[in-house]
TrEMBL record, chain A:
InterPro entries: MdtA-like_BSH. Keywords: Coiled coil, Membrane, Transmembrane, Transmembrane helix. It comes from Erythrobacter crassostreae. This is Efflux RND transporter periplasmic adaptor subunit. The keyword Cytoplasm does not apply. The keyword Ribosomal protein does not apply.
Automatic annotation (TrEMBL), chain B:
Residues 260-373 form the ABC3 transporter permease C-terminal domain. Keywords: Cell membrane, Membrane, Transmembrane, Transmembrane helix, Transport. The chain crosses the membrane at residues 16-41, 257-280, 300-331, 343-365. Residues 56-227 form the MacB-like periplasmic core domain. It is found in: Cell membrane. The keyword Transmembrane helix applies. The keyword Membrane applies. Signal peptide: none annotated. This is FtsX-like permease family protein. It is a multi-pass membrane protein. It holds the Pfam family MacB_PCD. GO terms for cellular component: plasma membrane.
UniProtKB/TrEMBL annotation, chain C:
Keywords: ATP-binding, Cell inner membrane, Cell membrane, Membrane, Nucleotide-binding, Transport. It holds the Pfam family ABC_tran. CDD domains: ABC_MJ0796_LolCDE_FtsE. This is ABC transporter ATP-binding protein. Residues 7-231 form the ABC transporter domain.
Length: 339, 378, 235
């Protein structure tokens, strides 16, 4: 070990010191390199039950926002081309307000026709009245002549006949007038039916027709309803509760609802009703060809006034549950208590 | 006397370095192989560790690991949310799909659908871009190991188009994740998007990830979830362990590494034992002289122990340094990504070194202790 | 036994097992070694002199008999007590020196002190003083394999004397040396090892140095055949 100063031994001093330094560095590396296996807080808030619900029994569900009236798919009674569109999405409409007009030219032509027939019938009535008046005056003249020789018997009979004929012509003309008036009324009704009106007051949610499009009584192109509307004040939310959880649901309690992606926006929704029928779950999965064997109870809640919710939006909801302890395993003999 | 003992040991450089080599080699072999073994089987839990927010994993009772799973009805999410103690719960989809790359190659990938709103289930860090890129249409985030597998020629993965189940997918980001055991390419996307990428089956929701309210333990909440929903709920640790156990039970890896570790031990015993015995034999006359002069057996034991301790300490340190250097040097290699040395492993190899030295030291000592001091007069 | 006896051996019998048979090496030896004298133990190879001396200095158990060293019955001591007794009272000079190759001359000479628990530096210091007395003070920092045979022997002598033992046992000190060096060593030994309160036993069969003895014990086939100040004529 000529390289080393005297009295310093490589194997006895330098090597152990190097080993010590090395092991310290190694230990430092090992401990600093240990993977972080701790859990981290979510960066965005996921939906969660808060307040009293956080620690107590509860039922969670997902739901869709809908109008209080549910969504009304406006249809058309008659088919035809759309000639005029009177509303656009977001409009508030009053009950009976026209929404769109379907081509009414054919009906209007029939109306004109009927009106002409009315005029014609009226003229015929006038003509018949004139004839009747002429005939009755002649008959009265003949009857005022006492001298049987002055007027022949046949003359009188003819005059009587003319008078009767004129009367019946009048009746015919009157009947024709009625028929023409009925025809005009029918045309008017049809014209009215070609104007589609709002069945209730509410908000226009979607308009899927444009002027010039053909509307059929069988529904519009692509299966879309022509116009969707509903009463959006208040909004309702239709919450799906898994049938397994449904028995625990505390009917009538307020639900805590938050929109998707904004879990911190929580509102209290008032219970409205539960649908009497348990239906197969079909919403929320975003897949058209969804096949599920899960059935859900749909419960409707009224949302308070808020700008955070829109029709069709998905929400997460928490509802208090009837606290009957942990659910016992299902046994065939057991009958679950109904509240 | 220990001063003399140490000098006796280092005086014979050849044997001293032979002993050091034996111990260092054993330590290196045991530490390094155990490290690789532990890291390799921990790859079975990478799926769990890659979702750092989840404290409880809820799954169908037949699901075993993140990759061996069976989907649940979508309402399972609501059932989990209904359990007290669950702070939050989000859907998590894991499935495999085939992807067609831009060059037309077919590659099996794991699709991971994370919660649309919160992105819970994504790895904590990103290599490129941010997690929010998933809000772009058809966006997927690839894991960094996947970049290596899918783009071997070093292309920039960002913006690359893939075809998944006849749908377009565009890589918008690269996640910093721990590779899976099979190093399969992983694509992260939103849950709703993942449903489109994975061929339709009846149920798709493979996992529900849940958080635990403050004051509750994950294990307690997991038990409650199991009780209330009939699903299987495991804490993060349990589920990670399940992934590891699955690898252990279904591969020959533990046997192979076990054999290597035993070999390391045997080689250590052989080299160290032989060298130490030779060293003692060379010095047997000196030891005999010391015994005659009046050094007690216990002091002799102390001397040999000091020699063994020096060799053991230095050799062990060299071995551990070797392992650390190895892991450090290969930390850039995708295969070794995330490899670390669990602190228990150096302790295990330390115990092995102690055992090796105890065995060999005892064998060597026996000859010293059996030496008649009278033999020095012959 | 009398007062000046350093070693008082009585009825020493020693058997060795050789396979199935037992070989009796010592056949009942009674002898005294006195302080202040240089006692030679002389005999042919196989006469039992090494065995006798081993027994007398407490490193080999006799089959029968008792040995008192400075009044202590050494074979009634426990193992550890015996080892410590040796350490405190006996100095050894081995034929092959048995120096530790990896420590220097001073440290080798200081081994008994170190074994007694003295710190390294004072022990070395004391050893160096002794080495100077032995005229190899300038070699104190050299390793044994850097020394000549004579120098190594002086180191071995220093090691035997450094802790001032009351009994010095010396095994064939002149075997590897020519006549003049042998005499020099023996002179040296007489000079440093012989003291009024110290006994010195020298095992040898080197007849060139018999005249330096104060007393000679001759062993033949495990028996003492001569005990006197001079060598018998037949040797």
């Amino acid at each position: 070990m000529a390289l080393l100063p005297q009295n310093v031994s490589f194997s006895r001093q330098i090597l152990p010191i190097l080993a010590l330094i090395g092991i310290v560095i190694a230990a430092f590396y090992i401990f600093s390199d240990l993977p972080d296996r701790s859990t981290s807080e979510p960066e965005q808030q996921p939906p969660k039950a808060t307040g009293a619900l956080a620690d107590s029994a509860r039922v969670a569900g997902t739901g869709l926002v809908e109008p209080a009236s549910e969504i009304i798919d406006i249809g058309s009674a008659l088919s035809g081309l759309v000639t005029d569109l009177r509303v656009q999405p977001g409009d508030r409409v009053e009950k009976g307000q026209p929404l769109f007009l379907v081509d009414s030219r054919a009906a209007r032509a029939r109306l004109t026709e009927a009106n002409a027939a009315i005029a014609e019938a009226r003229a015929a009535i006038n003509e018949a009245r004139t004839a009747q008046s002429t005939a009755s005056q002649q008959l009265a003249l003949f009857r005022s002549i006492d001298d049987p020789a002055a007027v022949s018997r046949s003359e009188v009979i003819r005059a009587e006949g003319e008078a009767a004929a004129a009367k019946s012509r009048l009746n015919v003309a009157r009947a024709r007038l009625s028929a023409a008036q009925a025809s005009a009324s029918s045309a008017n009704t049809e014209i009215g039916r070609l104007t589609v009106r709002a069945p209730i007051s509410g908000e226009i949610l979607a308009v899927n027709i444009r002027p010039g499009e053909f509307v059929a009584t069988q529904g519009g192109g692509g299966g879309l309803p022509f116009i969707q509307m509903g009463e959006t004040n208040p909004l309702h939310v239709r919450i799906d509760i898994d049938e397994n959880e449904a028995v625990r649901l505390q009917m009538g309690a307020e639900a805590t609802v938050s929109p998707r992606g904004a879990a911190e926006l929580q509102v209290k929704a008032k219970f409205v009703r539960a649908e009497p029928q348990v239906v197969p779950k079909r919403q929320l999965t975003n897949s058209a060809a969804e096949r599920v064997d899960v059935r859900v109870l749909q419960v409707i809640y009224a949302l308070p006034e808020s700008d955070d919710f829109r029709v069709g939006q998905q929400v997460d909801a928490f509802i208090p549950a009837v606290d009957n302890g942990p659910r016992a395993p299902v046994q065939s003999t057991e009958v679950e208590e109904q509240e | 006397m220990l001063w003399i003992a140490i000098r006796m040991l280092t005086g014979d450089a050849q044997k001293f370095y032979g002993l050091l080599f034996g111990i260092a080699f054993s330590t290196l072999l045991i530490t390094q192989q155990l490290t690789i073994f532990v890291n390799l089987i921990e790859r079975g839990a990478s799926g769990v560790y890659n979702a750092p927010e989840a404290e409880v994993w809820v799954m169908d009772p037949v699901s075993r690991t993140t990759d061996v799973n069976y989907a649940m009805p979508s309402t399972a999410l609501d059932e989990v949310r209904s359990v007290p103690g669950v702070e939050w719960a989000v859907p998590h989809l894991r499935a495999v799909a085939s992807v067609r790359t831009g060059t037309g190659d077919l590659e099996g990938v794991a699709i991971i659908g994370v919660d649309d709103a919160t992105l819970i289930g994504m790895p904590e860090n990103m290599v490129a871009e941010t997690k929010e890129v998933l809000s772009q249409p058809d966006a997927v985030v690839i894991d960094d190991g996947g970049v290596f597998n899918l783009f071997e020629n070093g292309e920039d993965p960002i913006g690359q188009r893939l075809e998944l189940n006849d749908q377009r997918a565009v890589i918008r980001g690269v996640a910093d994740s721990i590779p899976s055991f099979t190093s399969q390419v992983v694509l992260y996307t939103k849950y709703s998007q993942a449903l489109n990428y994975v061929p339709g089956t009846r149920n798709r929701l493979t996992f529900v990830l849940a958080g635990v309210t403050e004051g509750e333990t994950a294990a307690g909440v997991a038990d409650r979830i199991e009780e209330q929903t009939g699903l299987k709920a495991e804490t993060r640790e349990e589920f990670a362990q399940a992934g590891v156990d699955f690898i252990v039970q279904n591969t020959g890896i533990p046997t192979n590494f076990g054999i290597t570790v035993v070999l390391g031990f045997v080689v250590g015993v052989a080299i160290v034992g032989l060298t130490f015995s030779l060293f003692i034999r060379d010095n047997i006359k000196q030891f005999g002289a010391l015994k005659a002069i009046g050094v007690t057996n216990s002091k002799i034991v102390g001397m040999v122990s000091a020699q063994a301790a020096l060799v053991g300490a230095v050799g062990y340190a060299l071995g551990v340094i070797g392992t650390v250097t190895f892991i450090w040097a290969f930390s850039g290699n995708p295969f070794f990504k995330g490899f670390y040395i669990p602190w228990q492993i150096p302790l295990i190899s330390l115990a092995a070194v102690v055992v090796i030295l105890a065995i060999t030291g005892w064998i060597a000592l026996r000859s010293v202790l059996n030496t008649e001091p009278a033999s020095v007069f012959r | 036994m009398n007062a000046e006896s350093a070693i008082c051996a009585r009825g020493i019998i020693r058997d060795f097992q050789a396979g199935q048979s037992t070989i009796r090496v010592l056949h009942g030896i009674d002898t005294d070694i006195r302080s202040g004298e240089m006692t030679y133990v002389v005999g042919e190879s196989g006469s039992g002199k090494t065995t006798l001396i081993s027994i007398m200095c407490g490193i080999l158990w006799p089959t029968e008999g008792e040995v008192q060293v400075f009044g202590t019955d050494i074979y009634s001591l426990s193992d550890t007590e015996l080892v410590n007794f040796r350490l405190n009272n006996i100095g050894f000079i081995f034929q092959q020196y048995n120096l530790i190759p990896s420590i220097d001359a001073a440290a080798n000479a200081a081994v008994p002190l170190i074994a007694k628990g003295m710190a390294i530096e004072p022990a070395r210091q004391k050893a160096i003083e002794l080495l100077e007395k032995l005229n190899i003070g300038d070699q104190a920092n050299k390793l044994p394999n850097q020394l000549s045979g004579g120098q190594q022997q002086r180191v071995a002598i220093a090691r035997a004397l450094v802790h001032e033992p009351r009994l010095v046992v010396c095994d064939e000190p002149t075997a590897a040396l020519d006549a003049s060096s042998g005499r020099r060593v023996m002179d040296l030994l007489r000079e440093v090892a012989v003291a009024p309160d110290r006994a010195c036993i020298i095992v040898t069969h080197d007849n060139r140095i018999f005249d330096l003895a104060d007393r000679i014990l001759v062993l033949e086939d495990g028996r003492v055949t001569h005990d006197g100040t001079d060598m018998p004529d037949d040797h």
